[in-house]
Amino acid sequence: MPATELTENTEKTDSRPRLLMGPGPSNVHPSVLKAMAQPLLGHLDPEFLHLLDGVQHSLRQLFSTQNRFTLPLSATGSAGMEACFVNLLEPGDRVVIGVNGVFGGRMADVAQRAGAKVTRVEAHWGLPLDEEAMVAAIRSTQPKVVAFVHAETSTGVYQNPETIARAARDQGALVVLDCVTSLAGIPVDLDGWGIDAAYSGTQKCLSCAPGLSPVSFSERAIQAVSARTHPVQSWFLDVGLLDGYYGGDRVYHHTAPISAIFGLAQGLARVEEEGMEKRTLRHKEAAAHLLESLAPLGFSPLVAAECRLPMLTTLNLPGSVTNQGEANVRRSLLQNHGIEVGAGLGALAGKVWRVGLMGENAQTKSVDTLRSALEAELSPGA
Amino acid sequence: MPATELTENTEKTDSRPRLLMGPGPSNVHPSVLKAMAQPLLGHLDPEFLHLLDGVQHSLRQLFSTQNRFTLPLSATGSAGMEACFVNLLEPGDRVVIGVNGVFGGRMADVAQRAGAKVTRVEAHWGLPLDEEAMVAAIRSTQPKVVAFVHAETSTGVYQNPETIARAARDQGALVVLDCVTSLAGIPVDLDGWGIDAAYSGTQKCLSCAPGLSPVSFSERAIQAVSARTHPVQSWFLDVGLLDGYYGGDRVYHHTAPISAIFGLAQGLARVEEEGMEKRTLRHKEAAAHLLESLAPLGFSPLVAAECRLPMLTTLNLPGSVTNQGEANVRRSLLQNHGIEVGAGLGALAGKVWRVGLMGENAQTKSVDTLRSALEAELSPGA
Questions:
Q1: What pLDDT does residue A8 have?
Q2: Which of A196, B22, B180, B302 pairs as cysteine with B314 (C-beta 3.0–4.6 A)?
Q3: Does the pLDDT at position B195 exceed 80?
Q4: Phi and psi of A71, rounded to 5°?
């Protein structure tokens, strides 16, 4: 086997550091990287379990919930999504899903694979869900589960969860909320809003490495899982089995990703040190600075101010970008300036950029760096 | 929120370093820890994709396969197991599974949840599978899939895959092999043995952090997935969707766990530098030294020499251990000496220890450290 090839690859000596201003991952603070590089502990070591207790406690704070079942699932946010649906839905169950972007659509796909009867309530990409349409669908189909996205990463749209969640609970439905991009960037209040199951990711506003999905299930949700007549289709994501380890008995289920959890503990400590009030404000200020700074270059927001996310801004592209091919400009930003911005997804591919100002990167200086790079790339002589 | 609690936890200032001699995780080399602490790259960054190409190439070498579909799945080994079954099995499909320990039993559970008709061929824990019984079950049930464990982590038993795999393929069945504990400790030869789907974990003989599962599917297996009439029940583990990203088109599916893959790249480089021949010998020598060193203390191997694994030794416990309660002795080893050894699982709980000499820890000096600690804990005056 060629011994040198990978060694060289892992050195990455000729690369410049990246400013990650796409839809995630965001840049990880050096203290979080350092935490991940600590020597390993076993997944049943009392010292690791003590740290895990602290992580679960902090995640409850961040989700604003008393939910006992709150933990860092050992896979990315999409696995967290799947955990919610495969545990709460049995074949034939009805579910209403709001779809106004890629991740609502992914929810519908995942629910369908779990054998559920899915009612999709569609809205235009770039707009929030139509609350009246959601409420009407909930009332007419009487679903077991209602699901939607808090912060749609494909469009940059914020969804106020309150009205839809209330209507769902009034009809006895369980409410699932995608908090992948919202958690640690804007307030999340699971208990206040009456959310029964939520999931997030570590690589967005938490500014940790990708690979974990914080999830939380209410007691109502746990009871619904207990009352199932079919076994959960996924062994790996079975809430009952996960609860054996994360619930306090610490019975072996799978080997927890120790290093990633070390990093998450440090990432959560940074969030707690700053406090969500300051952190929310920081995200808002950075987003406002982005729009102001790029307006003179011809970029305009896709999403109206009242439902625009601060941590992920979807920008309509000026002719100076589209004339060169937007992918070429993104490539130049990466190659010449070390800046990553995100492409449009799905219906918005080729039409917009998605600029993330998440966690550690929610800084006006990140915006200034991007503006300078764009000025250089888009100037007539470039 | 209490800002100090987690910060204190992540410091771990008062703990001694651990010698991880359980069934995994094993100790991670400092260069792998350092690789994980590199600043992040995006999951679509050409530089990351180049590194990922190298990782996939190295995994093919290590699995001894030409399989194009070979990749580090973004979750632990149990998710790799689930990926094999949920892709290859449809509801009503027949599968024959060899069960002589926890992980064969887990396979049967996972296959059942996928709706398959499972024929379990049981063998005594501590013995290999009865090849004749497996072949008879394959011939009589004509299954779509035959699955068994190469290195059973719960018992320390080695299974020669050749006869069973040949019988399965002679009947047109697909063969699934659990290589969680074998990969990078003893030779794995997927193509030579005719294996169609295999999975492993990074935290055993690869000596990387837990959280990834190297998997490989043959072209026959990929064709079987393509020919399905039902969608794969898991979106996260759907081979067709995974292939969109890992197959070369690099279409976004989920955000790859960048930092863990940085670590894996370095871990694979270390394996390549040593070479599998030397590495296999090192595991064997360490295991032989373990048995010689602990025999005077009254420990004896559960498993007969001809099917005993080198990287995971299951030891019957002497009275000097059971008289104190085996869990108490394990706790003393951890607290007083920083050494972790594994408890017995399932039918062997309380009766044996599982001592891992995996990857970086497959060293005679690890054994000597354990022996000294045991001598101190088990001496009459202790």
A1: 37
A2: B302
A3: yes
A4: -160, 160
Q: Which domain holds residue A302?
A: 3-26+276-378
Interface A–B counts its CB contacts (< 8 A) at 254
Confirm or reject contact between B43 and chain A (CB < 8 A).
yes
User: B219 with B122, same domain?
Assistant: yes
Question: Are residues A110 and A194 both part of a single domain?
Answer: yes
The verdict on B341 touching A (C-beta cutoff 8 Å) is: no
Chain A residues closer than 8 Å to B45 by CB: 18, 334, 340
Question: In sequence order, which ranges of A28-141 are alpha helices (DSSP H)?
Answer: 30-36, 46-63, 77-88, 102-113, 131-141
Distance from CA of B19 to the nearest CA of A (A): 9
> What pLDDT does B380 receive?
74
Contacts of A334 in chain B (CB under 8 A): 45-46
pLDDT reading at A101 higher than 60: yes
Please answer yes or no on whether A74 and B18 come within 8 Å at the CB atom: no
- Which residues in chain B are closer than 8 Å to A28, comparing Cβ atoms? 39-40, 259
Look at residues A271, A286, A305 and tell me which one is the last residue of a structural domain.
A271
Range from A4-8, A292-296, B116-120, B289-293 carrying the lowest mean pLDDT: A4-8
CATH number of the structural domain spanning residue B323? 3.90.1150.10
**pLDDT tens digit string along B143-173?**
999 999 999 999 999 999 999 999 999 999 9
Sequence-distant (6+) residues with CB within 8 A of B235 are: A78, A82, A106, A109, A110, A113, B241
Residues B246 and B365 in one domain: no
CB contact under 8 Å between B235 and A10, yes or no, is: no
CB contact under 8 A, B47 and A15: yes
pLDDT tops 90 at residue B52: yes
Q: Is B9–A260 a contact, with Cβ atoms under 8 angstroms apart? A: no
**A244 and A205 in a common domain:** yes
Question: What CATH number does residue A71 fall under?
Answer: 3.40.640.10
pLDDT tens-digit profile of B344-379?
A: 998 899 999 999 999 999 999 999 999 999 999 998
What was the pLDDT predicted at A15?
67
A169 within 8 A of A119, measured Cβ to Cβ: no
Which amino acid is it at A47? E
Among A244, A271, A298, residue at a domain's last position: A271
Residue A109, chain B, CB below 8 Å: the answer is yes
pLDDT tens column, B246-284 = 998 889 999 999 999 999 999 999 999 999 999 999 999
pLDDT, residue B381, reads 66
pLDDT tens for residues A284-338? 999 999 999 999 999 999 999 999 999 999 999 999 999 999 999 999 999 999 9
Q: Which two tokens stand for residue B185?
A: 């400790």
CA–CA distance, B245 with B266 (Å, rounded to integer):
22
* Residues of chain B with C-beta less than 8 angstroms from the C-beta of A33: 36-39, 259
ipTM of the complex: 0.95
Asked whether the predicted pLDDT for residue B6 surpasses 50, the reply is: no
Q: What's the rounded Cα separation, in Å, for the pair B127 and B314?
A: 12
Classify residue A77 by its DSSP letter: H
Based on the fold, state whether residues B14 and B153 are members of the same structural domain: no
Q: What are phi and psi of A169, to 5 degrees?
A: -70, -35
* Total domain count, chain B: 2
Domain match, B264 and B331 both: no
> If contacts are CB pairs under 8 Å, which of residues 73-102 in chain A contact chain B?
74-79, 82, 86
pLDDT in tens, B38-47: 999 999 999 9
Taking CA atoms, what residue in B is nearest to A276?
Answer: B1
Indicate if B16 and B73 belong to the same structural domain.
no
| B212 CB burial (10 A radius; 0-12, 13-18, 19+) | buried
A62 Cα distance to chain centroid: 14
For every residue of B340-374, DSSP letters joined together read EEEEP-GGGTTTEEEEE--GGG-SHHHHHHHHHHH
